[in-house]
Design goal:
Rossmann fold; 2 domains; 5-stranded mixed β-sheet; 16 helices; elongated; binds adenosine monophosphate
């Protein structure tokens, strides 16, 4: 049997209801905050990611699905969405209409990471980005909106971690201080961090290897090295979050895997997912648009891991599977023909209706109704059709009542929508 590729997964019918609920909740919330949806391709030129995410990041160095197409051009299955959003902003000159663009997108991303629970090679993200606003107030607004999404999905075990990564003015000094520190603890670092120390020292702070975490316990922190402007920006973000009653923790060690982040950086973490504790991450990337050939516009955004979010929402939604409204148990050929008409008409009225066109007896049909979790069952045999009335059974109380066949769709509609 052909099986799916390692690190990839199917999202099965029992799960998709929850995914749809999350996607709808996010889309409607984001739209209330003024965001518009953007849909982007999965394949992009490799250079888009190597230039934006950074050559020395894990993603670009070893995780991208990159291949030469038939003409020999290098293309990549997108590992994240921000670079594509920025590419679209520049390519379609969206800034010429309005430099401020608030965009969201939902879709699959691809990274060839080591698969484990909560970490896949195809995973899904919900992204929201605000381009064209440098005010720290928008940082707070975006984090507020993200926290609200978790509230609406009744996820409580989450915390907002906040840090600042400074800017090109203050970060080089800090990087040098960090490198000086790291050179004193080199021997304690893992092989990857020995390399990162030279090329991308900030990433050492983010390493999950226990020895590295211990080695950097006393490492200098970016927030102690912020320039005046970055300091003021960070203070306003913190004050605004307090004013909006969003709880957060300052996480001096929080850095992000991609090169382009500046200033405000945040992550939503949860205790519900074991090792993969990050459900969402984001931050400012003020220099990215210009570095990709666009106008000098600041930006901030976040990406939520939809697979991980669905997992934690499922914890609180054990019985959210939701059954159908009505099952029509049709016995006999005439009844089945009538059931086809009734079920189509009722489905068009928004009443979730199922029927069964096989030759099952009443016992078998009631089993099907149970499997569908039907609230009501309409029992109609050829005999009932001749007599002009079918039986409607309330599956929770087991009460039965008679429903006239004449005008049955209207009769059922008023009965079921009233209950
Ligand atoms: P990033 O784009 O790396 O900042 O990740 C943003 C969010 O996407 C993370 O907080 C995770 O929830 C999710 N995520 C990232 N990589 C994976 C993966 N390989 N599998 C599942 N979720 C992921």
């Amino acid at each position: 049997m052909i099986q799916l590729i390692r690190g990839f997964k199917d999202i099965l019918p029992g799960e998709t209801g929850l995914w749809q609920k999350i996607e709808k909740t996010a889309a409607s919330l984001f739209e209330d905050f003024g965001f518009c949806e953007i849909r982007l391709p999965i394949l992009e030129h490799t250079e888009l990611f190597s230039r934006s995410i950074g050559k020395d990041t894990d993603i670009v160095e070893k995780e991208m699905y990159t291949f030469a197409d038939r003409k020999g051009d290098f293309i990549t299955m997108r590992p994240e969405a921000t670079a594509s959003i920025v590419r679209a902003y520049i390519q379609h000159r969206m800034y010429a209409v309005d430099p401020v663009q608030k965009l969201y997108t939902i879709g699959p991303m691809f990274r060839r990471e080591r698969p484990q629970k909560g970490r896949y090679r195809q995973f899904y993200q919900i992204n929201a980005e605000v381009i064209g606003v440098d005010s720290p107030l928008v940082d707070a607004q975006l984090i507020f909106m993200l926290a609200e999404l978790f509230k609406r999905l009744s996820v409580s075990d989450v915390s907002v971690h906040l840090n600042s990564l400074g800017c090109p003015k203050c970060r080089p000094d800090f990087t040098r201080a960090l490198q000086r520190f790291l050179s004193k603890v080199t021997t304690q670092l893992c092989a990857d961090c020995q390399k990162r120390k030279e090329k991308n020292p900030l990433r050492v702070l983010d390493c999950k290897v226990l020895a590295c975490r211990e080695a950097v316990a006393d490492a200098p922190a970016m927030i102690d090295h912020l320039c005046g402007e970055c300091e003021a920006h960070f203070t306003t973000v913190k004050n605004s979050l307090n004013n909006l009653s969003v709880q957060f923790e300052i996480d001096r060690r929080l850095v992000r895997g991609l090169d382009y982040y500046t200033r405000t950086t945040f992550e939503i973490q949860t205790g519900l997912l074991g090792a993969q504790s990050a459900v969402a991450g984001g931050g400012r990337y003020d220099g990215l648009i210009e570095s990709l050939g666009g106008p000098a516009q600041p930006a901030i955004g976040f990406a939520i891991g939809l697979d991980r979010l669905a997992e934690i929402v499922a914890v609180n939604n054990k019985d959210a599977a939701g059954g159908i409204d009505l099952f029509i148990a049709a016995l006999g050929e005439k009844a089945k023909t009538a059931a086809l008409e009734w079920s189509c008409a009722l489905s068009l009225c928004g009443i979730k209706t199922e029927t069964d066109f096989s030759n099952k007896g009443l016992k078998g049909l009631m089993k099907r109704a149970d499997r569908h979790g039907a609230g009501w069952v309409l029992i109609a045999g050829d005999k009932e059709l001749d007599e002009g009335a079918a039986v409607l059974r309330d599956m929770s109380t087991k009460e039965q009542l008679s429903v006239k066949i004449e005008g049955i769709v209207e009769n059922l509609k008023s009965k079921l929508t009233a209950s």
